[in-house]
Design brief:
Blueprint: H1 2-29, H2 49-64, H3 68-72, H4 76-98, H5 102-118, E1 125-126, E2 132-133, H6 136-156, H7 163-186, H8 193-212, H9 221-242, H10 245-249, H11 253-266, H12 268-283, H13 296-302, H14 307-330, H15 333-363
Helix pairs in contact: 1-2, 1-8, 2-4, 2-8, 2-9, 4-5, 4-9, 5-6, 6-9, 6-12, 7-8, 7-9, 7-11, 7-14, 8-9, 9-11, 11-14, 14-15
């Protein structure tokens, strides 16, 4: 565990230190957009945060690769994840500067999925009628689709300062906790790619969040959203490939299923927001890729929540799905339900507190603002 903590801390420190230089570079290179009607921020803010994250990840890999545990986890899968992440980061950086069309980005995301396949990162089975081993071509197709889905879910939720960064950090934390405890309890290799990559993602997000939380000095942009989305997707896929299904099935059926449902529960809020946006826009006769101000964070802002509070509420909603899923794999179900209820209750309390504050301010004749 110590080596993982060193890895996370190093990634956080490096990302924190390198981000201001990337911010200046982005401003000089024109990697920013003019204010748009759907934006909630009021000042021009540079993008390319993904470049800072990638640099932190690359340098961290070079340094911690000399640690015994981490070095043993530097497999071909880990190299493939790094290469695919590098590719989508570059694709996103180009999009941040020149605004690529959706088809080009989708093609690039699919190609990144192909890079993972070349290094053996692939969905191998599904928990259908017990355990269903997938034919190679079906597993490859599902892998590419899953990678694209997670990448775009992270991208869609990136609408408030620090929102996507914090949500991904929570998701990665859930993945790390699950993969590490699973390895300890079942005698798996603790130096596997899932634990290494997710700990690095946690560090990158925490280091970047210092510059990205409201008021943000820099956005992660598509370069960051694509990089983080791919790392999360690849970690989940790699985790399923490391599991001795029969060994776990004999102990706990839930532990067998969790690796596949965990990506959908930890990403429940981004995926829900993505699904609602597509349905909403298609019903209105618009392209599913057209922008609007009906995302979950927009609705929370209209309820009177400040940007900080709306962001924190969405953090809680993410944790409400993610952490109980992890707990359910190792603890009695009632503990997981209780944990989810406690987290959900805290988010409800914050929403009620906002409404009370609004009523008090209106009674006193004070204007209500959601700018901070």
């Amino acid at each position: 565990m110590r080596e993982y903590l060193v890895t996370g801390a190093l990634a956080a420190i490096l990302c924190y230190l390198v981000t201001p230089f990337i911010r200046d570079f982005a401003l000089k290179s024109g990697a920013f957009v003019q204010l748009r009607s759907r934006d909630v921020h009021t000042t021009i803010t540079p993008r390319w945060g993904g470049i800072a994250m990638w640099l932190a990840m690359a340098i961290t890999f070079l340094i911690v690769g000399h640690l015994p545990l981490i070095n043993s986890g530097m497999t071909g899968e880990t190299l493939g994840i790094f290469e695919a992440g590098t590719f989508v980061m570059l694709l996103g950086a180009i999009d941040d500067r020149f605004d690529l069309d959706a088809l080009t980005k989708f093609a690039g995301q699919a190609l990144a999925g192909g890079i993972l396949l070349l290094h053996g990162v692939q969905i191998l089975w599904l928990p259908i009628n017990g355990i269903l081993t997938l034919p190679t071509n079906i597993g490859q197709l599902l892998t590419v689709i899953f990678v694209m889905l997670v990448i775009n879910a992270v991208n869609f939720v990136d609408g408030l300062d620090g929102l996507a960064t914090g949500i991904v950090a929570i998701c990665a934390s859930a993945f790390f906790i699950f993969s590490y405890i699973l390895a300890v309890n079942n005698g798996f290799n603790r130096a596997g790619a899932p634990s290494l990559i997710t700990m690095m993602v946690i560090g990158m997000c925490l280091g970047f969040l210092a510059h990205n939380f409201y008021p943000a000095k820099i956005f992660m942009g598509d370069s960051g959203a694509m990089l983080l989305g791919l790392l999360l997707a690849a970690s989940a896929i790699t985790l399923t490939g490391q599991i001795d299904i029969n060994a776990i099935s004999n102990q706990s059926q839930r532990s067998t299923i969790v690796p596949l449902i965990l990506p959908f529960t930890v990403l429940a809020i981004p995926l829900l927001d993505l699904g609602m946006a597509i349905v909403r826009r298609l019903r209105a006769g618009r392209s599913p890729f057209s922008a609007d101000r009906e995302h979950l964070h927009h609705r929370l802002l209209r309820m009177g929540n400040s940007q900080r509070r709306a962001t924190f509420i969405l953090y809680l909603w993410t944790a409400m799905f993610a952490m109980p899923t992890v707990a359910a794999a190792f603890e009695p179900l009632w503990i997981a339900v209780l944990l989810g209820a406690l987290i959900g209750s805290l988010s409800i309390y914050l929403i009620i507190l906002t409404r009370r504050t609004q009523r008090t301010m209106r009674a006193q004749g004070v204007g209500v603002s959601s700018a901070s």
